[in-house]
Write a structure and sequence with these properties.
By secondary structure, the protein is an all-beta fold. It has 3 domains: about 60 residues, no CATH class; about 100 residues, Immunoglobulin-like (Sandwich), CATH 2.60.40.10; about 90 residues, Sandwich (Immunoglobulin-like), CATH 2.60.40.1120. Helix content is about 0%, strand content about 45%. The strands form 6 sheets. Strands 1, 2, 3 and 4 form a 4-stranded antiparallel beta sheet that branches. Strand 1 and strand 2 form a beta hairpin. The radius of gyration is 33 Å and the shape is elongated.
């Protein structure tokens, strides 16, 4: 008679290891009855894995990933003429967590989208297509009067019905380069802050990464605004020092473009 005996000798995390030892029945020469002895002919290591483990190509164990997505929001993005808009960016803002990271996705060629959610709640759906001059509809700088974005309630029992999301107004674009007045070289790591002239609390701030080499391109509303630029080791630059006067503010008409070359003085 031959059976397998497993001897467990250590536990590491969720993995249990041990030995597989063959057990052989041996007849006693002095007795007609059989007795059981242990003959170790080969000792083989055995690893016991939890049911949610699997092996990758290299042979190392990996815990399986489970999809904890609860619900989703589906819909369609259209422009002012009700034409579907492809490659638009869709955001879902949860009213219970307005400061959290916004789930987002992009529309397909037919303007359709589906946003996967990790929790239910009351969501406001925002849209943007900045490449074509349409800023995010959640931006107070671009929409100081608040854009009428659709609301969707998602619960644990059912997905939301399809929602129609409209692009906001097409706006202008401010582009340019930031250079050093001392050397004429492009300045990396600058930060640009725009504020509405008639409502300075509505601002838009963006960093210019080193990879951009001092160049910037920003979608702006068709109303007067001021501009401020800061950069390491340079003096701050502003369009106007006295914001009670319109002189020095910027204005870019909808659908148009304004190019600037801005020189920053080295810090004293």
């Amino acid at each position: 008679m031959r059976v397998q005996l497993f001897v467990v000798f250590f536990i590491t995390g969720s993995i249990i290891a041990g030995f597989s030892i063959p057990v052989v029945g041996i007849r006693n020469k002095e007795d007609s009855k059989s007795s059981i002895g242990i003959q170790v002919s080969a000792v083989k290591p055995v690893v016991f894995l939890p049911t949610d483990f699997r092996f990758n190509v290299a042979g190392s164990p990996q815990r399986q990933k489970h999809d904890h997505t609860l619900k989703s929001i589906t819909g369609l993005v259209v422009d002012s003429a009700n034409n579907p808009v492809g490659n638009a960016k869709i955001f879902a803002e949860n009213s219970d967590n307005p400061l959290g990271k916004l789930p987002y996705t992009y529309t397909d060629k037919e303007g359709k989208f589906i946003i996967k959610l990790s929790e239910g709640g009351d969501y406001t759906i925002h849209v943007a297509k900045e490449k074509d001059g349409y800023p995010p509809t959640y931006s107070a700088f671009h929409y100081p009067e608040s854009f009428p974005a659709p609301h969707v309630v998602v619960d644990k029992q059912q997905n939301s019905p399809d929602v129609v999301v409209r692009l906001g107004a097409k706006m202008g674009r401010l582009t340019g380069k930031i250079v050093s007045s001392a050397t004429g070289s492009l300045i990396d790591d600058a930060r640009i802050t725009l504020r509405l002239f008639n409502n300075p609390s509505c601002e838009y701030s963006i960093g210019v990464p080193a990879a951009a080499k001092g160049a910037f391109s920003i979608v702006v509303p068709p109303v007067p605004f001021t501009m401020e630029i800061t950069a390491p080791n340079h003096e701050r630059w502003r369009t106007v020092e006295n914001q009670t006067e319109l002189t020095g503010s910027l204005l870019v008409k909808a659908g148009s473009r304004k190019d600037l070359v801005i020189s920053l003085s080295p810090a004293k």
